[in-house]
Amino acid sequence: MDDKSQERGGDSEPVNSTDRRVRADAQRNSKALLEAAMAVFATSGVDAPVREIADKAGVGVGTLYRHFPQRSDLIVAVFRNEVDACANAASVIAAEYEPGEALARWMQRYVDFIAAKRGLAAAFSSGDPAYESLPLYFLEKLRPALQTLLDAATEAGDVRADVDAKELLFAIARLCSPDHYGGGPEQARRMVGLLVDGLRYGGAPSVGPKT
């Protein structure tokens, strides 16, 4: 067996420890850039200098541009990353808490998502076609996550049965809008807590078919 054969795996692709390190470094850099961008966008807006983002991530500007050639690429990636994290949190919370409590806790997690997204608002309202797919992505990820929690809480009798997941997503987002009541994140959490109390009114355990 020659040296080249020894360097290849079963799928005939080169197996090289240097390549693996490069891929791992690239993944770490990408994650660091997304986290840094989210933090910078939240405080300085989406027009913040890219060097500020790169410095916060601990990488060079060239590395940022290799991962995200356009500013819109970074903004889209940040939004999708935040949506994914919020959606994935639903199953984690559901595994740790009873259905009604899980729903309430995820709704507060969603408040955090809305608060973090404020820094992206200017980009989303810009009319740039790069962002056209994001509302659909938002619904495709978050609506099923919330619906699963709602179904479980309804089945347990913890919340009323006439709640639509899409409407609830938009209701929470409206409560979190500073233009809606002039408050900050803490006030938004309190108001969403009141909304949770309203959902509990009229809740009743589901019953099976009569025999």
UniProtKB/TrEMBL annotation:
Residues 1-11 have a biased composition (Basic and acidic residues). Residues 49-68 bind DNA. The keyword Iron-sulfur does not apply. InterPro entries: Homeodomain-like_sf, HTH-type_TetR-like_transc_reg, HTH_TetR, Tet_transcr_reg_TetR-rel_C_sf, TetR_SbtR-like_C. The keyword Transcription regulation applies. PANTHER family: HTH-TYPE TRANSCRIPTIONAL REGULATOR BETI, HTH-TYPE TRANSCRIPTIONAL REGULATOR RUTR. This is AcrR family transcriptional regulator.
